[in-house]
Structures
1.
Amino acid sequence: METTKTQFKTILESIGNTPLVRLEFPVKPTMLAKLEYLNPSGSLKDRAALYMVEEAERLGKLKPGGTIVEATSGNQGIALAMIGAIKGYRVIITVPDRTAPEKIAVLRAYGAEVHVCPNTATHDDVRGYHARAEQLLHDTPGAFMPNQYYSPSNMMGHYYHTGPEIWKQSHGLVTHFIAGAGTCGTISGVGRYLKEQNPAIKIIGVDAVNSLYSSKEPKEYAVEGLGIDVISDTFDQSVVDHIVPISDEDAFSYTRKVAKENGLLVGISGGAVLHVAMKFAQQLSESDVVIVMLADSGRAYLSKVFMTQQAETPAAKSGFKPAQERIV
Ligand SMILES: Cc1ncc(COP(=O)(O)O)c(C=O)c1O
């Protein structure tokens, strides 16, 4: 049989179309999980990163031989590092020092240069990973910064791809969509698309309790992926029904629990999302269909979550109280 190369997908063409699987949790609604950790670099961030890089190429903002600079708590950087390795770009990533060592090792394995910065309470702190990325962008000729925290393109990747995928895979039956909220690109892009199909669908984001958004006094936190510390055009508040804050302790302990009891070795945001989904499920009926985003795998957090029994965070030690659920 004659074959051509283009009959087969490349790594970048394999991003997305992750499985949507039924979870057998003892609750009334149907619970479906989107296994985003099966993306090529291991997280949902492959989607936003590829969309932003290819848009920059189309607009001439990123040229052959150029450099990609980004501030990230890990996964956006890992996605960019993979894409950079495939497309031949230099990649420089700044991360806060709460980032799991496995993620930093993965960034370096893909050939990225990594700058580890102090874990600051706010994004505008000059010591932090954001300010460092801005400085590197300024100092590096031919550099492009996707700027996931501020660019609406982040959310458009989810609007054009993740949202339609979820609608199709759930046969239009989805009633609730629950995902971690960091940049808010996922909840905003998926939320906008799903609400256009059926305005009754509820969109729920899970935030770090100590983030700028959920706390009157933002503090450091240990969860990764979650944490709304910037409110920008990437966050379309009009399509989000609830933002639910979660503590480091609840997120870490539920992440450990679902690995042992349900065979779900997911990252901290996946554990947090499942914890919130189980609470929501108590008020729902048999006809509801809840979709949870399992953004990345627990393998990235073996040392931080699974080889220790505490949240191991300055915030956890300070004995903070969880904020109330906030409705936007
Ligand atoms: C593990 C994980 N969960 C959740 C999120 C949140 O996604 P978003 O930035 O689209 O809000 C991220 C983002 O980096 C992540 O890495």
2.
Amino acid sequence: MDRILEREYGGMNEVLYNYAAVTGQDRWRELAQRFDRKRIFEPLAAGRDELQGLHVNTTIPQVIGAARGYELTGDRSLHDCADYFWHTVTERRSYCTGGTSNGESWNAPPGKLAAELSGYTQECCVTYNMQKLTRHIFGWTADPRAADYYERAYYNGILGGQHPRDGNKLYYVPLQSGFWKMFGTPLHDFWCCTGSMAEAFAKLGDSIYFKDDDGLYVNLFVPSEVTWQEKGLRIVQDTTFPESDRVTLTVRAAAPRRAQLRIRVPYWSVGGSATLNGARLESFATPSSYFVLDRTWRDGDRVEVRLPMRLHSAPMPDDPTVQAVMYGPIVLAGKLGTAGLTADTLRAEPTKPRTVPEYKLEPIAAPAIRASSSDPTTWLKQTGTSPLEFRTVGQSQELTLVPLNRIFDERYAVYWKLV
Ligand SMILES: [Zn+2]
């Protein structure tokens, strides 16, 4: 068993905890506990980050199992393990995209990320699994920081991980400048990420809403509908976010019902506002909290929310002169052209099935950015073509920046050296 625990055995504890829950049989819980990796769990439960050197996508599924184990057994040490792990990974080991891992590992102490940029950063399975863990954390805490993280991973880790032309999946999201996204091929490259990214896209409708006895949380701004059976309410969300910063929620109710509607006000939004049935509401909520409307809802009630987006920088924790730029929750990437890229070099090598992809060309360097401050509005302006397209100003080589999740088949840069 000790040898098994040192291999990449996936979420065996989680699946067995789930099996114990559906069968009601203790023996499956006991078997699940044999897959709990205590050597990793104990320092985490004690609040120690000893993750350096570990294989990332072996560890995260094990910790998801710890989270599920806590829910079934009430074991506080499993709770503390999952909770501390989530905080240390999302706050000290994640890129601006919400992704983590470099060459599939954590190679450095927490907070050391500036030297962790390569063509092999941010394995897609890892983002998928961190979203999965985040659902547990949010379910326990309703912490808006967990919802903020989920959104970050949604736009910058999941979207863009499937090629829009043929649905092929991505293994790594390269964050060293000058690389490109190398997708799989239809018949040869079936990686772990091929599976998890298919699941991730099937779950784009997951975690938009959460509920408890009194209220409904609106966590993501995605056109959707949710039926809240217990209250006899249906909420219809209309938006073109992130092209627009406006979100409309229309209530459908067979009979008037009292309930709380809790709308997430993201960390990135300043100066938001809301109207109810066309009348401006006096109060709103601060960033990274919930705007709560507690009232008796009638059919046709309509809440409109405005969440202004702005450019903001995402510096590396250990080197503030290395920065990415975000617009609202969206990580922007600079287009660096297609030099040397052909149909052959863009795709993984089909003669080498089931291996990690290898780039056939070298990355190219991105220009340093001349900036008078770390405020990206000093060197970046909206083009007017699209609200999500920007152009550098005052640089030796002017560049266009667009959302990372919309870059395909070309070289790009996410992190910039500011001088
Ligand atoms: Zn993978």
